[in-house]
Amino acid sequence: MKVSTKLALLVGTALIGLLCIAAVTLTQLKQALVEGRQEQIQNLLLKAEHLVLYYQSLESQGKMTRLDAQAAAKTAIGQLNANSKSYFWVTTSDSVNLVHPVAELIGKKSGGNRTTSGDLTDTQAYAQGLATNHIALVDVLIHRTPTSPLEPKLQGVVAIPAWQWWIGTGFFYDDIDAAFWRVARTMLAVSALIFAMVGIMAWSMMRGIRRALGGEPVDAAEFAAQIAAGNLAAHIELRVGDKSSLLHALSEMRGKLRELVQGIQQSSDSIATGASEIAHGNIDLSQRTEEQAASLEETAASMEQLTATVKQNAENARQARQLAALASDATGRGGSAVNEVIQTMRGIAEESKKIEEIIGTIEGIAFQTNILALNAAVEAARAGEEGRGFAVVAGEVRALAQRSASAAKDIKALIGASVGRVDEGTGQVSLAGERMKEIVHSITRVSDIMGEIESASVEQSTGIEEVNRAVSQMDEVTQQNAALVEEAAAAAAALDEQAARLRSTVGAFRLAS
Description:
Elements: H1 3-60, H2 66-79, E1 88-92, E2 97-99, H3 122-130, E3 135-143, E4 150-160, E5 165-172, H4 173-213, H5 217-228, H6 246-383, H7 388-506
Antiparallel strand pairs: 1-2, 1-5, 3-4, 4-5
């Protein structure tokens, strides 16, 4: 279907919609006008009713007689004006006119007008309406003038039961119709204007769409369908000077797509060749990477063994240092014991010297005793027989003194020999103390060297652990590289397959007619 046909249908649909809206609106307007008149009649009748009720209240209060009150009420109602086209009238319940703008009709019975439906008289319709409503509203047919034809009129009636009056007023429908047609003409004019504007806009849109499309949408859709089907050799006629329409853009797109597909066809072969070479290279690289990964695994294992060995050496050095420290302590204690022995032997030597001195004293005493015994013997000899016993005693004392001196000499000789041996032992012990000091110094030096060996072993272990971690990281990276190379090889194979599919897909485009 052409764009012009679619737009004509659109405009027709809009026209129908406007007519429907206008019909509904006018119907509602007519109803609103009638309801407005009914409300106006009810207000006027309520006003007249209140006026009559006022005079009834004067009657009930005794301020006026019924006749005076009724006369005053009729005069007041006669002076009320609904408007220039309406008036109030009052009748009795049997239709005798009490108030009417036509003076000749006062006191006469109304002519018995009928309702617009024709089935009831106006009096019957009023009575029927007042039976159920405070104000009865009835459509009746009335002569505007005695010679004029019957016209529909909206009449309203309210009853005054105490006086048996009916007060009424109304409006002819011609003023309602006049107001209705004023609004209707305005609405129809506006609808016609809107329809004209819609038509102009539709015509402008049709021209704009045709100019934007460069032709009918069917032609553009068919041309686009051929391109979508892969027929890049399709051709369409364009208007002279057309450089901005959809068909021109589709034609340009076809040309660009044709050039693009030609380039893709030429490049797909190169991509396939390159992908194949990449795949083979990646396979070779994957094999070499796996070999390198295996070597790194062996290196990592060796480094772990070396790390364990160095740690064991460090532990042995630590234990040797501890043993050297223990030996140094033991040697130190031995040196202390030797020093104590030296001190003890020196004490023995000093005590021996003191004994020699004591023995010397004993020798002196023995010598003196010997001299005294000798003197006693001399004196005993001088005394003769009286001194013979004393001489014997002196002899014994002298003999004891000589033996004491001899024993003291022997003891002194023995003590001298002991002191010599003690001195010799003291020298040997001193020499042993010096050797113990040298041993302690050597053991301390060995302990220091073992500490240095332990520190060096710890540092070496730390360095080897770092090297081991580095080798492990290299191994992990190499494993990852191997996986990446395998993925790259798979990707290259997939790329080769995709290149083949691309050649097959691009081959679906027809580039020449």
